[in-house]
Structures are given as C-alpha cells and as structure tokens.
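As a warm-up, study this chain.
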Amino acid sequence: MAAPQQSIGNNPSANLAPLRPLIDLRDGAKLPSSKITDALKKKFQYYWNKDSLAWRSILNIGTQVELFFAGDQFPVRNPISGAWSIIPTANISNSNSQKAALNIMHNYYANLESKWVGSNPDILVRPGKNVDQCAIAAKGGQVVWDYYNRRFYSPWYNRQECRAGTTFGTYLNRIRYDDSVKSMSIIQDVFETKNVQMGDGIGACPDCGKIGPAQDFAQNPEGVENFGGNVGICPDCGGMAQVEQPPSDDFQSVSGQKTEDRGEFVCEQLPLASCRWDLMRRAEESSWFIYRQETTKGALQRVLGNVRIPGEPGNQESGMLDGLSQVRNLAFAGQAVGGFAHGNWNEMSQYLKERVAFDEMWLSANDIADINLQGDEKTVGGETLPQGKLSDVFPDGLCAVGLNGMAVILGLYGETHKSQISSGVWYIKGLSGAGRGLADSVEVQKQFNRFANQQATYHDTIGTPAIGVDKQIMPAGRAKYIGTPNMNIPFDLTKLPEGRAMKDALWQFQAAPFPAAAVQYYQQMLNVVGQKTSGVTDYNQGEPGITQKNTTATAAEIDQSNADVLNQPIFQGKAELRKRNAEITMKEYPKYFPMKRFLHIAGKFGEQQGVELYGSDLEADLICEVVTNSEMPKGPFTQRKNLATLFQITQGGLGYSQLKAADPKLAANLIQTFDVDLDDDSFEDVADLCRKRLDMMKDAMNAGVSDPVALISAIQPPISRVEPYLDQKGRWFSEVLDHDEMQQAPMPLRLAVELLAAGQFMGAVQQQSTMAAGQGQIQVAAATPGAMAQQSMQPEPEQPQVSPDALVKTQADAQQQVGQQQEAERQRQHESKESNAQRAHDIKIKKMEVKSKQGKSK
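Now compare it with the structure written out below.
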C-alpha cells in the first residue's frame, strides 16, 4: 500500500479534498462533516491560536508604528484585544482637540526608504559542478532569473516591502505559479482515434482467374455463408471467389489544433498580520505555516453555487480575524491632520457579515501523523484516499485550502510552503524567526509631541500675559475683554479710592520667554535619540574622529560610508531573501514550463534581446550567490564615483576598451569589483559560444569522425570571417588546451582545436589589417581637399621641355616596372601554393601519427 499512497500524494496538481462534504453542501446541508475536515479544523484552531499573546503583541506594536508613520499620532487602544486604532473624528473631545503633532518619524522612514529602493542585490547563477550540463544550465538560469527579477521587484513592490519591514519588523515573499496570469499561448495538436486499413486486400476467382482488390468482389452473397468475410462474388463471371480482407488497426491521428494559455510565476507580499508559523524558527523553516485572506460570499457562491458557507470568519474579540481586521483598518484609515484621522469602527460589524476567510494551511508529515482515515474516501480529483495514516498519503506534507477556519475543505495538495515562502527581518531578535521594526522611535515621537505641545501652551500663556484689575471699578464680566482687539471696555472712575489713579487699578504681568536651555536640550536630545533608535545616522553633529561640520568632500564621503555601513546588515538580509527567491524560481521553473519559451532580455537604449529556453535546460546542479556589496544602496553620486574610479585605474574609457580586448576576463572582474554596470557581457557571450562549438566537435568525435578538418566542419552555423571577437575566441580555444578535458581528449580533437585557434587568430589579424587600411584611406580622403586647395594657391610651375629620347626612356622604365610587379605576383602565388601544400602535408603526417598511435594502442 505504501507505494500507491505516496504516488497519489506526491502529485502537487492533484486535488485530494474529500468529495462528499462538498456534495452535501451543494444539496443544502448546513454543517457537512468528514473525518479529514474535523481533524484539519482542529489543527487550524490550534495553530492559529498558538502563542496568541506573542502574536498579538507583535501585531499591536507594528500597527502603532504604522499609525505614527502615517501621522496618526494619538491612537487609542482597544480594551479587549489591545489593538491600536485611530480615533473617529466624531469622538474627538475638546481636550484631545487641543493636542498637536509634528511628524518627525516620517522623515526617518523616508531616509530609510530611499536607501532600501537604492539597494538592488545582484544574484549570479553558478554551475554546481564542473560539467558542461551545469555550465549551460547556469547560463539559462541566469536568463530566467534576470527576466523575473525585473517583473517581480518594481518600485512599488520595493517600497511596500520596506514599509512592512520598518513597521512589523518582518517581510514575507511568496513565489507561486498563477493560472490566472497569462504568460504565453501554446498551439497543440488534437488527436482522435481512427480505424485505418493497411492495404487493399486481395480477391481471387478460381473460375475465371480474376485477381484484384478485395473491394472489387461483392461481399455477403445471398444464400451463401460468408465465413468471416472471406467469400465474395466475382465481378466478371459471377462465380464464387476467395477474398482476403485487408488488416486494420486503431491509430491516433491529428484532427485539429487548440490554443492553450500558460500561467506565470508571481511574487506576492504576505502581510505579517495574515500569517502564523512557529516563532522559534523562520517562516520557511517552520514545519507549519498558515496564510489567511479575505473574500466575499458572492465570489464563493459564484463557484460553489448558492450555498450557505458554514462557520464564521471570527471577530476581534475572539482573535480569529484579529490580524485581518488590523490590515483592513490600516488600509481604510483616512488622511491624518494634526495627528487625527477618521476610523471605520462602526462599519466593522456589517463588514464581517459579508466577508469569508479564505485559509491556506501547510502541515508537514509529522504534523498530520496523528490523523487516521477510517475507510476509502473519494476525492475531488477522482482519486481514492485509502484507509490509514494521512501522513502515508502525503509523505512530504500537505497544503489544505479551506474556508472559515477549515469549516469547508476545498483542496488538499501534496506541497510544502518551503518551496514558496521567503522571509526577511529588519532588526533581528534573538532566538526568534520574527523581527522588529522602528518601534523604539515611537517613544521619541511621543516625547517630541509632548514637548512641542508644552512649548506651544507656554507661549500662548506667557506671550499674552494676564492683567490684574480692581474688581470694584471693573466687574468680572467686563474684565475678560481686556486684551481683545477692537473692544470698548466701560469702567467707573468714581469708584477709585482717593489718591489712586487708573494705573493703580490695572497690573500688567511681565512676559517671560521659554527657557533657552530647555529648548536646546530637547532639540539635541531628540535628534540624537531619534537617530540612534531609527538607524538614520547623518553624522552631521560630530562623531568621534569626524569634525562637527563636514565642510570637505572627503568628510562627507566618510559620513555617507558610515551611514551606509550602519544599515548593511539590513540590506544583507534583503539580498539573502532575493537569493532564496532565485533558488525557488530555478527549482520550480522546469515543472511549469517544460516547453520551449522565448524570454525577453531588455537592454539599454531600447535594445531588445531574447533567448529561447526549455525548462529541462535548468535541470542541473545550480548555485545562486549574491555579488559582493551589490546589496548596498547606490545613488547617482555613488554610481558616478565608482565609474570614475574604474576609469582612473584603466586610464580612461579608451584604456578600458584596450584592456577588454587584451584581457576580457580581467576587465569583467574589474567591473564586478568596482560594482559598475557597463552592460557589457561580451566575455561571457564569447565563452558560451566557444563552449557550444567545442561541444559540437565533441559530438562529431563521438559519432566516429576522426578528421580534424571534418570536426571543424561539424560546427553549425560555420564560423564567419567577419564575426566579432575573433581574437578572444582564439584565445579561449588556445587556453582550453591546458584544461583537463583537453589534456585527456583524443588527438584529432586537440588538432581540431589547434587549427581553430590558429585560424581565428589569423582572422583577427586580417580584420585589423582591413580596418587599418580603411582608416588610412579615410585619412587620405580627408586630407585631399586641403592639399588641393593649398596647391591651387601656388603659382603654376614652368613645364620642363621633354626630349623624345627621355620620353622613350620613361616608357621603357614603366614597362620594366610593370614586368617586375607581374613577376612578384607570380612568385607570391607560387609561395602560397607551396605553403598550402606544406600545410596539407603536415596534416597528413599528423593523421598518420594518430593512426600509428591508435594501431599501437590496439
């Protein structure tokens, strides 16, 4: 039983969900149930509520950080769930309306976001073994990853990823194949079974001797037993004839064509609030993982029919939908002004009535080992789940897809989340798979708001000081108007005591400025603490070894370097996630794209290139690695600086071009070392093309070809004398002679490689000679007009008198010179023939030596 059980669960496309509960649901059952449904529902409730206090704390802190980033500086806390939320505008009291907030956290975030967007790690796909198959697969894998790298990580994606990391401390990626996204269309042949006769058969009449095809003889004559169709009537004499019918068989034949659309890989960001896993490990290392989404009842009823979805999605009090509620509150929060925004608490009850939780739960084989099936059960995919342990059916784990906490099971698939999920953290936490964001900066923002409100209140109070009045001459009802602009205030001077004037009845309190020391203390303290807690360090107020004011370019570069290094671990985490995504893509691509596919490679300046690949081309041992320091942010200034440093070493762009022509491998290493993108991969292209040509000669050698010239002729298409980089290609073939594969290669193949290298070196020399001659003609043509103009300005020289004897002598000398040139041309042609003959003789001698060695070896 073990073998067939594993074959069922190892098919990731087979849906092994129980069929009976879905039929009962369609027939009107309110609570359809099955052994698997009940067991998985309990598993979901256990894992979703596991470590609920820790998860609630993580989500509440992340929500608070997001609110402060968005300018909602005065959130309130739900007394039941502890979740932070914005205050509805209608509930703002007079005391709260006197508060004001100045958002400084957004400045810290904007600084970090600019660095995050500028960090674009480069992932290289390398062969895992030193064999041709891995080398070819690595080149194809690099093309595939470059294609998806551009598709996955748009500026919007990068910014959302940074937001998730700084708020909740953890960002999650999921790479999966999506059938709803069209990538390409495939035209396939449609086959049908047809009965095909092989030949015409034969019929023979013994009376008249007629012989012909079986169809010429009438079958089943009346009153005569046919004996299986072997008796017929002769068309000539009407006598009984012997007929042999042609044999026939059923064959598959093409009856038409159909177009099939293929899906595409997508990279999704999973909100932390919608996920659960074992906090002791990273998400991709946990044995189980849950991802919750929201959908509407109408969307499900469109697929399942007009059915009642059992179960409830949960509410904030129970914690079942706590994370999804927070996600919705953050998405639908209004624009904050002065620290306040409008919430949607009153809409939550109605919102929950129309929503359904769509759940995906991945469990390892160990997590489902305690689930036993009592009997065979039909599945949606048509298979039968046998009796026994569920872990025997899914030895690599399963993915359960259901509604409202697995109240309804829609799908069971043999897959693991480890082939889809990647995670990264902002600040790492000890012994935890979740990270921490900029929660420490919230307290800085709170203290800044408190100090700003205190200072504003002080200026309102002391800037317009109170006035003391004598209540006998000015009642309290009139005294309140003192200090009000354009206000006439009547008072009775007769009530002044004798000997006292009006100035004695009014007293102006002296205004006092806010303590300057307090202002300076708070400004410096908050600036330093804000930088320390957020990691946004500008070093503009003086640090050890750096002056207080960065007045030189060198000091500014040191400051920028120190600020970047401070965040380097964060960017290294981003590069690690990109590397894992590349590994997932390399592994999953052959499963969904086994056919040939054309992948566009976008070049600079509007260039469009592409490569046709089979998914099987990537089925090899591949290694993905991050280019050193490529994860560090690079703005326009840094890019220009790196390019200037490279050209300083190579003595300019012309020097780099000469270095690339002389030593392309060194030029490629310099580009990687200085992290300069020159869009020049000619070295890799030359190596790939030469490797393909060498493989063609190896195939011909294995097929029995032993002539070196014939081995070179096996290269298709043939090498052209005008193709570029002939010198680099000749150098590649000359260097490969020192490799182990050619040291142990048969002598005919070594001779072919030698001839190929020599011919390409000669072709490069001819190309350079032709170009030099052409440039010389251009220079002569450019200088001709000036020379003619200068000559026209000179006086006309006197024509010498030529005697007849001198004219005859000149003609004789010209004829002698022509004869010498003709003789030199004949001598050159003779030497060329001798050289070709000598070369053919040498090849013949080498062939004889090879045959002699082969004979001795036998």
